[in-house]
């Protein structure tokens, strides 16, 4: 990836992340994937390294490093283990960002210092059995009752739910208003009425853990609402563009890992009297991978730079997310093809990349939703 125009601070940060990932994450990535779990102390380690607070202002214990640093971090982490990167991203770009952007001063002071140190780990509970691409079909209800809200409903496919200490929950407060009738709440996982069902089995992202969450007459204080009632989620949609930048970086990191593995296989694999890299098809495939991943990275960096400059970047973040995640899927498929049977074996990291990549096109707004967002801003 071309980082030539990054500042010295940004390059050094990326190098320090890469060293840590190569020493502590990559060697364990395969076994954590197979075990479908990883040591949760990693969150505290990430906290000590300052990684959980990159996008959190210093006033709340973060480093305020910004979106470019965060993109560098996500790309390097995804290169080592996409499953770990997924859990990290949900905690920081979704749960943490909700507090930063929607929380009032008291809520930020109460929660953010614990989030940036990894003492409390969060999840983002939006999706439901019948609410995916269509946000307005959320059925979970939060009904005011005195100084409390009472939540009822089911959340589905929630990453980090099996071990999260708190949940950011999207619930309908006024169903008649549809999308505008939703609010966002922070809920302690041990609140009576919260049930986390057994972890769900997935195709990829093995290390990350997900589950269904059921809320049954779960009573929380009204002070746990993030942002004003009925505009909270609209605001959340606007401020959570960080998640799209992170997904783009994620796609670039994972795509780069797949490219590296296939490149080294093709260099060492001898067929027809020479290494596979002597074939034009192989050379062109690797050249196309390098080109598309570079383009994806530059789109990602561009949207991150706009975000750091406080300039509009909604469309750019969608473009970066769309292009980088589709490029990642393409690169992982090509990498597996280039690695032949060896890449198809369970011991090969390439088969893991192939299983991990697809969800990047599905989560954080599917490719179709990104295309809609981009189209809406064309002025047609
Ligand atoms: C590994 C993983 C982790 C996840 N983690 C979380 C999490 O932590 N928190 C959370 O809230 N959710 C999470 N999700 C769920 C995620 O939010 C949803 O998968 C996502 O919102 C898409 O919803 P859906 O899967 O129900 O797809 P559906 O809504 O059923 O859509 C299916 C397909 O139809 C397409 N489609 C739908 N409507 C249209 C349209 N109008 N025009 C064109 N195409 C359309 C979609 O783009 C998609 O390709 C996770 C999912 C996975 C797989």
Structure characterization notes:
The protein has 380 residues and is of the alpha+beta class. It has three domains: 8-121, Orthogonal Bundle (Butyryl-Coa Dehydrogenase, subunit A, domain 1); 123-228, Butyryl-CoA Dehydrogenase, subunit A, domain 2; 236-376, Butyryl-CoA Dehydrogenase, subunit A, domain 3, CATH 1.20.140.10. It has 13 helices and ten strands. It has a four-stranded mixed beta sheet, with helices on one face. A four-stranded antiparallel beta sheet has the order 2-3-7-6, covered by helices on one side. A hairpin with a 2-residue loop joins strand 2 and strand 3 (148-159). The radius of gyration is 21 Å and the shape is globular. The structure holds flavin-adenine dinucleotide. Residues 90, 123-127, 132-133, 157-159, 202, 205, 210, 359, 362-363, 366, 368-369 line the site of flavin-adenine dinucleotide (FAD). The site of flavin-adenine dinucleotide has 20 residues, from strand 1, strand 3, helix 12 and helix 13.
Total of helices: 13
What is the class of the largest domain in the CATH system?
Mainly Alpha
* Percentage of residues in DSSP E strands: 5-15%
Tell me the span between the first and last alpha carbons.
35 Å
- The run of helices and strands is HHHHHEEEEEEEEHHEEHHHHHH
* CATH topology group of the largest domain: Butyryl-CoA Dehydrogenase, subunit A, domain 3
State the domain count: 3
Bound molecules: flavin-adenine dinucleotide
Alpha carbon gyration radius: 21 Å
Strands, count? 10
Biggest sheet strand order reads 1-4-5-8
Helix content: 40-55%
């Amino acid at each position: 990836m071309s980082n030539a125009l990054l500042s010295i601070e940004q390059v050094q940060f990326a190098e320090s992340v890469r060293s840590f990932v190569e020493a502590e994450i990559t060697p364990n990535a395969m076994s954590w994937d197979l075990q479908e779990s990883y040591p949760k102390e990693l969150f505290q380690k990430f906290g000590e390294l300052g990684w959980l607070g990159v996008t959190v202002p210093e006033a709340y214990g973060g480093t305020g490093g910004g979106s470019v640093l965060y993109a560098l971090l996500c790309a390097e982490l995804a290169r080592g283990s996409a499953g770990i990167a997924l859990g990290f991203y949900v905690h920081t770009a979704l749960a943490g960002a909700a507090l930063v952007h929607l929380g009032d001063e008291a809520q930020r002071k109460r929660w953010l210092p614990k989030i940036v140190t990894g003492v409390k780990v969060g999840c983002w509970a939006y999706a439901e059995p019948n609410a995916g691409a269509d946000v307005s079909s959320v059925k979970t209800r939060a009904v005011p009752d005195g100084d409390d809200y009472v939540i009822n409903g089911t959340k589905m496919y929630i990453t980090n739910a099996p071990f999260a200490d708190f949940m950011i929950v999207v619930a309908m407060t006024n169903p008649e208003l549809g999308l505008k009738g939703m609010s966002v709440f922070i809920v302690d996982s041990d609140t009576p009425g919260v049930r986390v069902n057994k972890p769900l089995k997935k195709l990829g992202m093995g290390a990350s853990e997900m589950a269904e969450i059921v809320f049954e007459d779960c009573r929380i204080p009204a002070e746990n609402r993030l942002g004003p009632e009925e505009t909270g989620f609209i605001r959340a949609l606007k401020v959570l563009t960080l998640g799209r930048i992170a997904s783009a970086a994620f796609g670039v990191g994972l795509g780069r890992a797949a490219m590296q593995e296939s490149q080294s296989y093709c260099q060492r694999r001898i067929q027809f009297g020479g290494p596979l890299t002597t074939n034009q098809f192989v050379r062109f495939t690797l050249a196309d991978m390098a080109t598309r991943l570079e383009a994806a990275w530059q789109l990602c960096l561009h949207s991150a730079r706009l975000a750091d400059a406080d300039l509009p970047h909604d469309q750019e973040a969608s473009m970066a997310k769309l292009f980088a995640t589709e490029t990642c899927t393409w690169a992982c498929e090509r990498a597996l093809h280039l690695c032949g049977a060896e890449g198809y074996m369970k011991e090969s990291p390439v088969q893991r990349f192939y299983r991990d990549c697809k969800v990047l096109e599905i989560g954080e707004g599917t490719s179709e939703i990104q295309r809609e967002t981009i189209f809406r801003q064309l002025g047609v």
